[in-house]
């Protein structure tokens, strides 16, 4: 390369040379700064204090990038300057940057927006400038992850609304079945004694109506009475079968929606890289839920939930 008026400062960065230097600097001597983890008696992960391994860390200094117990945190940050360092509980420790699989000394900073790279969109500065993503359209990792998180939150809101609709529909199905079948309820008599009393359902009322009608006829109509009862029973049976099938379908659908919601919540807790990698799966999940919600809406619009059993008589 020709050196211009600005001298060597005008030359482009040699990322390959920088990577080699960083690897030499981060050799065996640079790998001793990671926190030691252990497993407690109850199975939870325990992080040792970086200052005193006999202690269990409880805070993380975002400036020093160290895990400290309460005593060591106070001792190592006792000066006015160090006391200004931000120390947070381990649960609030920021996610560590994910390193590039191709250039291990560089962190993932960008997301490729090209259609052909969506299977592996993550890239570091070397991938962007000289690697397989050279010249590709891209965006910064954190805003892209935040955008995906926002879409997940919107989907979670839709899921909650969808879940409420399914639950309400399921409750109506339960009520309709109870109205049709009837049952037992506890009532008190005049002296305050509780006892169970049978509450007839619409199916039993329909049968009673049929029996009352045919009781006034002659014995020659008995065969017609039995036929009518069988028609009522067949209608009730078919309606109950359909309603119970609807109940089962709603239970399965509710389980699928709950599973999707749980998957979204787990995705929201992942680091930026995993959130970006989950983008396609989340999009497919949203499309599936939208189709299910449309089918559910069409079903709810066309099906009228009615516990009555129609009975008509002809001469």
From TrEMBL:
The entry's keywords: Metal-binding, Zinc, Zinc-finger
Record carries keyword Zinc: yes
Pfam families: zf-B_box (PF00643)
Keyword flag Metal-binding: yes
Alphabetical list of SMART domains matching this protein: BBC, BBOX
Record InterPro entries: Bbox_C (IPR003649), TRIM45/56/19-like (IPR047153), Znf_B-box (IPR000315), Znf_C2H2_type (IPR013087)
Domain spans labelled C2H2-type: 67-94
Ranges of residues in domain B box-type: 44-90
Coiled-coil regions listed in the entry: none
Single Gene Ontology MF annotation: zinc ion binding
Annotated protein name in UniProt: E3 ubiquitin-protein ligase TRIM23
Lineage: Eukaryota, Metazoa, Chordata, Craniata, Vertebrata
